Each structure stands twice: as C-alpha cells, then as structure tokens.
Amino acid sequence: MSEITDFDALRRAMAENSEQPEGPARNARAEQLLVQAERLNIPLAVIEALGHQLKVYNYSSEKDKMFVPFARLLRMWDEHPEDFDEYETHSLHWVFKWMSSGMLDQPHIPLASIEKWLGEMEHRYRLAGHSERAVRSAEFSVAAHIGDVDRAERAYAAWLAADRDSMADCHACELDGQGWWQAERGRDAEALELWAPVLSGEFTCAHEPHAVLASSLVPLLRLGRLDEARAHHLRGFRLVRAMESMRGAYADHVEFCALTGNEARGLELLAERPAYFTDTGHPRSRMNFMSVVTLLMDRLTELGLGDQQVPGPAGRSWTARELAAHARGEALALAARFDRRNGTPHISERVRRRMGQRPLVERLALGVRSERLAHPVRPVAPAPVMPASAATGDEPDLAALLAEARRLSDTLQPNAVEAWAAVARAAEGTDLDARDRAEIADHEAMDLGPEGAELFERAAELYAEAGDPGEALAARARAAYVRALAGQVDEAVEAVAGPYDEVLALYAEDGTGVRQTASVLMGRARILMRLVHEADDATGGGASQETVLAQAEGAAREVLALVDGHTGDDVRLASRAAEARAMLAELAVHHGDVEKAADLFAGASAAYVDAGLPWFAVEYEARLAGLAQHLGDTAEAERALKAALEHGGPHLEATGRAQLHLQLAEVLGGRGQSAEAAEHALDAAHWADEAGEGPTFGAWARHLLGGFLLRQGRWAEAAEVLESALLDLSAETHGDGAIVQTQWWLGDCLSRLGEHRASAERRLQAAEIARHWPEQHDHATLAHLAAESLDQAGLPTEADQAYARAGELWRSLGNVHGLVRSQRARAWLALRSDDGAEPARELMAAAVHECVSALSTAADEESRQRLTAELGHTHRQFGDLLARSSAEDAEDGSIRATFEEALTEVEEAVSVFASLGADARHARTGAELAAGWLAADLGRSAEAAARARAVLEAYADATEDDEAAQERRAEAEQMLRVVREPEDC
C-alpha cells in the first residue's frame, strides 16, 4: 500500500476503494485510509475518511462497526462545525437515518437508547431546517419492528404527509419501505402498485430495484402472478448475488425457491454464500436468513430427503434434517434476543410464521438449470384410479379389481397394465381360472415390451385352455410383434404367418370374432411395417423395397376392410382402424407423397379422438406437425403440436411432453411469436429436467428460451437462462453453432445490462470457436462486437486490437461496410490516446478511401446506394473527429485551421447525403446542422443561418408526430437565434 502524502491522493484512494466489491477487504482498506488521513493533520481529511469508513461498513456484513466512526463524526461536529464543508455537513445528517435503522438491527442496543436517538435525530433535523419526513420514516421503522401497529400506522401517515427534502430517502428506497408495510399488512396488490415505479426502472439507486424485486416475490406468489414472480427471481437474484450487504434480499430468494418446488435451486443458492450462515455483523439479516434455511430444510425433510447432504456452516458436513434443527435454533435464539430488547413477542411470531409457511406452488418452472435432488419426489403422472371397493377395507376385493382391470383394458385406458398388476398381486395364492390367468399373463407381457415374447406365448396357452382360440392366436401375434421390436424382424414375419392363416380360417367359420381377428391382422401389419423400416437401408428377407412396401400397405388395408362397418362403440376396433390409417400415412411418406400422408395422419388422429382415445392421437399429431413444417404450413404445425399436448393431457410422459413443447417453441419462434414461444421453451426445459434429460434437450430448450427472452428485451432473465444453458451445451451433443449463438446472445444481454467486460469475454469466446469455421462472417461480426464491448469496458488497447482483427476479417470477406466501421471506431479510440490526433486522421482518411474505392467498382445500384450512405457517414464522422481533435491550449490559428478542415468534411457529407434524395433526409439535415455550428464557430453567421434555414425548409411538410423532424427544426431555430444575437448587440 503506497503512503498517502496529500489530500488529493487520499480522495483518489477513497474513490478507488468505493469501486471495490463489498466486503471485509474494502472495509479494511477504509480503516487503513483513516489512519493515513489522520497523519495529514487536516480536519476535513479525517471527516471524509470517517464518512468513507462509515459508508463501506453500512454496505457490508460488518454493519455493527459503523456506530464508532459516526459517534466520532458527531463529536467533531459538535466541537468544530466549521471543519465540515457543505457536502460533509449534509452527509453527517444523512447518516443519522443509517444509525437509527442500524440500531434496530442490533439486539444488544436497548430500545430506550433507540428512542432517545430518534429524539436526537428529530432535534438536530429541526435545528438544521430539515423536514420531519425522514424522522417519521425512522419512527415508523421502530414501531413496525416492535409490532406496535397503531404507532406504525400513525408514523406511516405522517411520513407520507411531510414534505420531501434533501434528507428524505430516495424515491426508490421510500417506495421499498412503503410497499413492504402494505405487504406486511396483507395488502399485496397495493404493495405491488407502490413498487411498480421501482420495478419499471423509473426510480433506482445502489440497492434498488434489488431489494424490491426480492420483497415482491412472495406477494406475487400469493396473488397467483407466477410469471412475474419467476421473472423477478431471475432478474433480482442476478442483482443481489455479488452484494455482500444484501443477505436479507438473498434470503427472500431462498424462500421463493422453498415455496415454489425449487428446493434444488435453493440449495445452490445456499452453497454460493457460505459466509451468510456465520456472519454476525448484522443479526437481523442473519435471523431472516436462518429462518428461510429452516423453511427449505423442513421442506426437503418433508419430501423424504432429510438425510441428503446440504450446504451449511463451514467445519462439518450437514444433512437437511440436521441443518433444519441448527438453523431453527439460531433463528429463534436471535428472535428471542430482539424480543427481550423490544419487550414484545413480535419478532419470534414473525420468524415462526416464516419458517412454517407451506408451498404456494407445487413446482414453478424457472428455466434455469438446477442439480437434481437425490431421488424424484414428485409424481409426474396420476396414479391409476382403483375402484372404491378395492380402496377401502383391509383386504382388496379381487372381483372388483378384475372388473376394473377389464373395464380399463376393454376401453384401452392408459392405466390398464397397472390395474392388471394390482389384480396379480391380489390373486397371489388364489386359484384363478384359466381365463383370468391368461389376461394377467397377457398384460404382464405388455409391460415387459420386447422381453415379453415368452409370456405372450404362455398367455396364448392359457387362452386356448380357457376355450378362446381367437384370443390365443392374438396373443401369439403379439409375441411375434415384440420379437420384431427386439430386432428379430424376419423371425417375426415367419412367426405371425401361422396365426394369420389360422385366424382367417377360424373367422370364416365363425369360430372367433372381429376383435380377435383384427388383433392378429394388426400384429402382422405392425411386423410388416417394421420390415419397411429395415428396408429403408437394406432389403429384408430377400424381398425388394417395393415388395415390402406393397405387403405392408396390403396388410394395413386388410385391417381397414375387416373392421369397416363393425367399429360402432367398440373402441378397440376404432383404434385398429385409426392405426391402420396411420400406417398408410407412414407408407405415403415413404412414397414421397407428403400431402397424402398429412391427410391420413390427420384422419388417424381424428379417429382416435372420436373414439374417446385422444392420448393415442399424440404421436400422429406430432408426425403431422413435422409434415406441415416440411410443407411450409407453420400454422398447421402449431395447431397439431398444441393438439398433441392437449390430447396427451396427464398421460404424457415427461420426455414426450418436453419434446412437444420444444418443437412448439421452435415453430412459434419461427413465426415471430416470441412471448408464447418462450412459455413453451420454459415448459420444455422443465419437463426435460423432470425426465433426467436436462443436459441434452433441456439445454437446447434453455438455449431457445434465452433467445426468446432476449427478443423481448428481458435482458437479465435471458442472461440467467443463457448462462445456465452453457453449463450443459456441448459441441458433441448440440453442435458448436449452438454454443456460439448462446455466447453471442449472452454477450448482447450483458452489453445491455452494462456488464461490458463480461460481454467482451463472451463475445471473444464465441469468436474463438467461429475462427475455425470455413465461413468467417460470424467470426468477423463477433470480433467487431467484442471490440465494442472492450471499448465500453474502458480497455482501449484491447479494443483497438479487436477492431484491427475485425477489420482484417472484413477485408478478407470483401465487406467494405464492416471494414470502414472498424476503421472509424479505431480512429475515435486513437483520438482519446496521447498524441493520437494524427493516427486518428489517418484511420478516418483510410475509411474514406475504402468507400471511394468500393464505389468505383460497385456492381449494382443497391450496392452503390449503401456505399454512398457509408461514405456520407464517414465524411460526417471525419468532420466531427477533426473538430474534437483541436487541443484547448493550441494557438487560435491552429484551431481555426482544424475547424476549416472539419467544415470541409461535413460539407462533403451534406453533398453525399443530398445525392441520395429523400431517403437520406435526416442524415443530410444532421450534417447540415453540424456544418452550421462549425460555420458559427468560425464567425460565418450568414452561412450558419443559411444552413439553419435549409433545414427548416427540408422539414416544411413535417408532421408533429415526426420526432426526428421536430428535433431538427428545434435545433435549426436555436442556431438562428444564436447567430443573430451578435447582430442585435
């Protein structure tokens, strides 16, 4: 640390320290600076150093340290007020408010001392001529803290009635406190109305909207405004994450996670701030933090995860159950200290209420990645409904279970297999007849999928034993089909041939019904369709692809011919007809007849819906959506995907639901419907996580969601989601293009949020990947954007290097516009450096040369028009650069010569823009006005006036709603007034 030898150096050091992150390191530096200030033997230096120390303490976890420097400042004021300048006098009175609230936060300070301090504050403010607004606000805080509602309401009314003056908190902070009180009193809607100007960005400060965003979370949840709550969490947590002093707001975000089914994210938040468990400098925020830790840990324990390892105080490992007990004890002990000080039970009651809250939403999707908990604790689909007789009493009613299972299977309900499993469990040790045993085996085989062939064969034997040869043949056909699913397609074709011939013969003799016959015919058709899929790459069984297609089509049509006219109310037969149409649709795709395929899939879907089996329509609506996209009919694709989600309802598995939402998000995004697309991308990410597919298409969903949020200007939310997506995106799974695009979008978000250094890093990372691509346009664009961010981040050397690299790339691509803009940017950078005026001139002259050279070889009129406009802008910027390059201490003759040169460039810009006609009117008039001001500076009033009148004439027909025109007219009129004033004197 260098020695501070003068007051200016001290002030520079304090300013530098103010820019450092909140925390003990900044506080320690402030303490060192006070020691060095005392050595200067300048009272004001000590006063300023004490004020700086007090400020950094207040904005840290060591708030308890701020009372000592304030007491010293107050003593210095009482003894030598003349040592304080105007700013430090104001600051001293300003921090009275910090002392008042700070005392409330420290339970060891007696309430009587706080009340005495409040009176002292009122007395000193009155002596200084300040309004009582800040005093009444402080009194309100005391009354609300101890639970004296009547006094709090009176102080609140007096606070709002008093005049705002220089001692009043900023608008943002005042609205924060006022909204908090409304929410505390159960008036959530009124709270959010008060907070609206802060949330919209109308009023901000160092800690706002950070605190309001956090405070708004639970009120929004209670009002059911879930989309806003999600947005406020993503936006608000980003703001408080790095601010050590905002433990209370951080706790609000942990609470939000516990109340919305986002327990895993809550754990991640705890892991990010281990010091929050133990920092003791601000007891009230520690109490609030430990309260929500208890809430979260209790929730995990309730979900069966009490033994899960969780982040906690350093020095040992913690389970959720252990941390719940520890945090509860800490929170209640702190609350008891406050209550002893206050003489009321209010704080303990509030803490208990907070710890005892119940979830307000079962699961609110956030769109950001979160580590999965130890095991799934929430079902994603409803359990099968059991009959009343089976659900009551100690012993299940086997007859009722059988009846229910048959009803479900006869009507093709999704939970039929589970119902038969319940029958099997209830029937253990019971002597069932062959038919019952056949059906149990049949459905158990269905549950086994490709491994169920042998059990289907056993079911066939039992059906035959029960005297149902048709159903026995159907079971054998099912056995053949699952062999095809296992990859044994040729064997399956042979295995189904016998049952097929036998069932047709049996049906002809009235030995079995349509249902059993249709089942065998459908089994054969399914196997032949598997053969079609095999024949896509190679022939199966020696048959040509045309033969296989013909056989499959014949089989599907045979099913249709059999069931035609027989479906009636038989949903099984209706299902066979619908599936056969879907097979014909699939075959139409193979023949290249996409429109016919779409019609057939639509028919199959409609048939399932008409039969009361909408969940079977999901697959075909999804296929129809893909075909519609192929045909360019995005409206039909959107309809089909929404229908698929509706038809699937609660029966859709998480994976299928995620895929449908993802496909719909892509379709809607392509149609420009970003808001709705974002909703589906959010749902896709949520269901992908539920399915354990977060790193695969969950990451892709987050990638899309971030892009859609970006399109809506929701920069902070988009940044959170995109950063989350990058954790899982990989070149192997998603392609490096997805990574580049995500980094690109994230760089754009960070730029809009003012995080320019981080924006540059993201853009450079993306550029490094794009550097290896054959086509270099993206590489050039990213290098250019990175240069812009580096410049805005205050890194001119790095920015110049990036612009130079971008310029080389633009030149190699033949992109004159990019090259010229990089040269102009480098010129402005050069001008800001020492001795940079001449290099800046050279760079801008080179940009003019590039434009002129490109114009001489332009291939078409459109290119000429664009290059001409670029030339005009370059001349205009050259003129502006020259005008600003003249040093203030230069000789008058030198300044005049530079202004003359600048005027020549701007006049050239006017001429170039004029050649483009009406399309460049605003650009021309802007240059005209710039030339007018330069002429005025050179003492050419008549020329300046003429240019102003030319602008007014250019906008003679402008309407009042043309803002650009009105701005130009106002500036021209101002110029006329300025250049006429010397003549009037």
UniProtKB/TrEMBL annotation:
Q: Name the segments for region: Disordered.
A: 959-985
InterPro entries named in the record? TPR-like_helical_dom_sf
Q: Which SUPFAM superfamilies match?
A: TPR-like
* Biased composition annotated in UniProt, kind: Basic and acidic residues: 965-985
Name of the featured protein: Tetratricopeptide repeat protein
> What organism does this protein naturally occur in?
Streptomyces spinoverrucosus
Taxonomy-wise, where does this protein's organism fall, top ranks first?
A: Bacteria, Bacillati, Actinomycetota, Actinomycetes, Kitasatosporales
